[in-house]
Amino acid sequence: MKNNKLSLRRSEGLSAFVFLSPFLIGFVLFNLIPILFSVALSFVDYNKIGPLQMDFAGLKNYAKIFSDEQALNGYMKSLTFTAIYVPAMIILSMLLAVFINKAFHLRTLTRTMIFMPYVSNITAVAMVWSLLLDPGKGPVNQLLKLIGISEPPLWFGGIDTSLLSVVIVNVWISLAFQTIVFLAALQGVPKDLYESSSIDGAGRWRSFISITVPSISPITFFLIVTTMIGSFQNYSIVKLLTNGGPGTSSRVVAMNIYEEAFNFHRYSYASAQAMLLFACILVITIIQWMWQKKWVQN
């Protein structure tokens, strides 16, 4: 009997390994090995075009970051982007999910339209928003002038507004995913909790704060972490909309890393910036993980 159980466990373990092996092979080849190579590259002096020479440089590339104003500015811009983007995404997607979770006319069509930006081509999206927010002839600024705003924002062309404008577009693109996840979480909240609160005289706002928010707190924590990580990695939409400008007003750290590696061929220095970014994301995630014990309801 014991031998049969042992054989069954081995068979199940082998089956699990076979099913997982494509993912494991892909992860090792395309994630783990490049990450380890990037770590090694950040400690050598390979900042040129030519044969790969592993001349050990220690922390030289990392020290250089703290004397590079452009690199430090990139980290600050990424932090600013994240500080605006993450709260906006979480709050708007949660409220939108609460809205479309209710029964109303054309609800299916509304859900479909909300999801469309998420599956749209990002280049096409950037082109459309560039036309909409054109400072001179864009329909948004024309409308603002009609309602009495004589000097509307420059949007992507303004030093003070370029990063915020990119955040707005990125929220519009990515809002659907968080909304769908929140919607699934809301549909898992027991209805009898709302019925009990209604009997006790609680209003909609009180029920939302006391029942909805605590019940979906695990999903909220998951989305905060994943949204934060994604915001630090944001490159394509910034490149397409502003190219980091005007000046360096929207030049996030991902753009620095890309250009240091592929434009200036300073691969070791780019790897050091990437590893420092990874360390920043890891520290922030650990802090969030420790903090979530105080507000996430299991």
Give a concise summary.
The protein has 298 residues and is mostly helical. 72% of the residues lie in helices and 0% in strands.
Task: Describe this entry's structure for a reader.
With about 300 residues, this protein is an all-alpha fold. It has a single domain, classed as MetI-like (MetI-like fold). Helix content is about 70%, strand content about 0%. It has 13 helices and no strands. Helix 3 (about 70-100) packs parallel to helix 7 (about 160-185) and helix 3 (about 70-100) packs across helix 12. The two termini are about 40 Å apart. The model has no long low-confidence stretch (mean pLDDT about 85).
State the main characteristics.
mainly alpha; MetI-like fold
Write the layout of secondary structure elements.
Layout (H helix, E strand, L loop, with lengths): L1 H41 L17 H6 L3 H32 L6 H13 L2 H11 L6 H8 L15 H25 L4 H9 L4 H12 L1 H16 L3 H6 L11 H10 L4 H25 L7
Task: Please outline the major beta sheet.
Answer: none
Q: What's the total helix number?
A: 13
- What name does the CATH topology carry? MetI-like fold
What's the Cα radius of gyration? 24 Å
Structural class, judged by helices and strands?
mainly alpha
Q: Class in CATH?
A: Mainly Alpha
Question: Please, what is the CATH homologous superfamily?
Answer: MetI-like
Residue share in β-strands: under 5%
- The end-to-end distance, rounded to whole angstroms, is 39 Å
Portion of residues within helices = over 70%
The CATH architecture category equals Orthogonal Bundle
Number of strands: 0
